[in-house]
Write a structure and sequence with these properties.
The chain is of the alpha+beta class. The chain has helices spanning 5-16, 29-42, 120-126, 154-172, 193-208, and strands at 49-55, 67-69, 74-80, 100-106, 109-115, 129-136.
């Protein structure tokens, strides 16, 4: 199954049957909005681990010792891969206690701050490439290659998008009542958009809780 934005939206449209036609914004803007909301909810439950590195000598943010730009899709820190060594505290080359990592906002930029900044001794022993793992924000790219959400969570994403569509139809019903029909015989379904929203969200929350 393709994990591109277009493929996900096509499946959501198919699942909504005739109701999909009520979302008329150009370039699938309505469905992209549903996708963004769904990803925000999924981020609380789905971990997307990735790896990255910064150069401790050249990548430091000017004027901020120990601060380095975080990856664009950064959500939270995983663990340090940098810093592995075999020296004991009594060895002359022992690098001392390694820095702690905190997330900081510097002039609107998400940064990783090493507290305290890596010392020359630590860089000499452990290397200048600070390698680490982190949890990425779940994303669905225009191209599948830019998607970070694992394919196994595709169904959960579609479920949350369906719920968001029903939430918006519920708001629409304030002035323009919507009859949910089965898409085959035209027979009205028993559930209103509001009831479907509640049912879909309950299912989503139950499945997300098991991740």
């Amino acid at each position: 199954m393709t994990m591109s934005q277009a493929a996900i939206i096509a499946d959501v449209k198919a699942s909504l049957n005739d109701s999909a036609a009520l979302f008329k914004a150009a370039n699938d803007a309505d469905f992209i909005r549903h996708l963004d909301v769904a990803l925000q909810d999924i981020a609380a439950s789905v971990a997307c681990p990735r790896f990255a590195s910064v150069d401790l000598l050249t990548d430091q943010i000017d004027g901020w010792p120990g601060a380095y730009p975080a990856p664009a899709d950064y959500s939270r820190f995983g663990q340090m891969i940098w810093g592995k060594h075999s020296y004991q505290p009594w060895d002359a080359l022992y690098p001392g206690q390694l820095p702690s990592i905190i997330k900081a906002d510097i002039n609107g930029m998400t940064a990783l701050m090493l507290c305290p900044a890596a010392s020359p001794q630590q860089i000499a022993v452990c290397g200048s490439q600070f390698k680490f793992s982190y949890i990425a924000k779940p994303a669905v790219g225009v191209d599948a290659a830019n998607t970070t959400l694992p394919e196994r969570h595709r169904g959960l994403l579609i479920l949350r998008m369906q719920a968001e569509a029903m939430r918006e139809l519920t708001m629409r019903n304030i002035t323009k009542p919507t009859a949910m029909r089965d898409g085959l015989t035209g027979t009205p379904r028993n559930s209103t958009p509001a009831a479907l929203y509640q049912a879909l969200m309950a299912e989503f929350q139950a499945k997300a809780a098991t991740l």
